[in-house]
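Milestone 3.1: sequence recovery, worked example.
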């Protein structure tokens, strides 16, 4: 047992917990798997919920320090699953009368015995599926509410961010700010999340958070987008996925443009373009720069930062002071 516990802890800390299969998870957390049954339209979301529930159970058993991050991930999983399961309750099945309108009939117009049997089975199938979808949704809501209750008041930055962003919990936001002021928030995602609360009233602090987020950004997450097959229907901001470098760069582009530092705005807009993201209007930003300005130098800085992010070595030291000061 000690060896198994140690092996799990090693895997947990190394980020390999996703290798657990749904079958393995459900053998350990069978009550939850039985309460929230499989539904073809929410299958992958259900799997994420079950696997994370398994890891939560193991983390609790081992008293792992990573349990609060898992709770945050499960809250996010449940948001997605509850939304999906609710949509399933709105599905309208084809009415039996319509489904069997052209079924085989007797000379007197009544359904044949075989057709009546199939009609009854269809009615029972509809009732069963409607009941399952409703119960899935209701139990998912209860499980979500339970997670919300046990995580409220937590000192974890991830859970504080969740309760502030979803429930406008001012105490959670105050806790987040205390963590930041104490230098305890160094995770790239938390730096980005927290920057959103500072962006309106203390944009200069938000700027520092965004730049700090890039400086600790995992290189394995720094991926470029694939060129869209249909550019007319493509919305870049909907293609970010879990890659936070896109909203970080987008926020920096907008911030520098708002303070009329067009050189820095152009720099981060160029970085977005190097990642095949066209959510910023680089042409408009270029027009704000003096006409005689040659942006080739800024393009070179953007390429340097691009390469540094690929290697996980982003630093503002690569940005010339004249650009930071808005001078070319």
């Amino acid at each position: 047992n000690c060896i198994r516990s140690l092996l799990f802890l090693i895997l947990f800390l190394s980020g390999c917990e996703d290798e657990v299969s749904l079958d393995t998870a459900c053998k350990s957390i069978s009550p939850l798997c039985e309460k929230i049954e499989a539904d073809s339209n929410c299958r992958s979301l259900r799997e994420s919920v079950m696997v994370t529930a398994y890891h939560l159970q193991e983390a609790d058993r081992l008293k792992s320090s990573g349990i609060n991050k898992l709770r945050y991930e499960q809250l996010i999983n449940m948001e997605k699953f509850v939304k999906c399961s609710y949509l399933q309750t709105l599905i309208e099945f084809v009415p039996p009368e319509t489904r069997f309108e052209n079924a085989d009939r007797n000379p007197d117009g009544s359904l044949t015995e075989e057709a009546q049997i199939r009609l009854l089975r269809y009615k029972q199938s509809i009732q069963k599926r409607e009941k399952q979808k409703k119960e899935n949704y209701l139990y998912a809501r209860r499980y979500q509410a339970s997670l919300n209750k046990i995580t409220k008041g937590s000192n974890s930055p991830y859970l504080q961010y969740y309760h502030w962003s979803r429930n406008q919990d001012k105490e959670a936001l105050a806790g987040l700010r205390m963590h930041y002021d104490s230098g305890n928030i160094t995770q790239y995602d938390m730096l980005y999340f927290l920057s959103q609360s500072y962006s309106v009233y203390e944009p200069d602090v938000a700027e520092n958070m965004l730049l700090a987020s890039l400086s600790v950004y995992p290189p394995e997450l720094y991926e470029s987008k694939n060129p869209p097959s249909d550019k007319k229907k493509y919305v870049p901001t909907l293609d970010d996925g879990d890659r936070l470098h896109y909203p970080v760069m987008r926020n920096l582009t907008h911030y520098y443009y708002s303070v009329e530092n067009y050189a820095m705005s152009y720099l981060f807009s160029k970085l977005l373009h190097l990642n095949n993201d066209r959510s910023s209007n680089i042409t408009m930003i270029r027009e704000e720069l003096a006409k005689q300005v040659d942006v080739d130098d800024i393009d070179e800085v953007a390429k340097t930062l691009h390469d540094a992010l690929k290697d996980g070595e982003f630093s503002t030291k690569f940005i010339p002071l004249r650009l930071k000061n808005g001078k070319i």
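Residues 1-17 have pLDDT under 50 and may be disordered. The radius of gyration is 26 Å.
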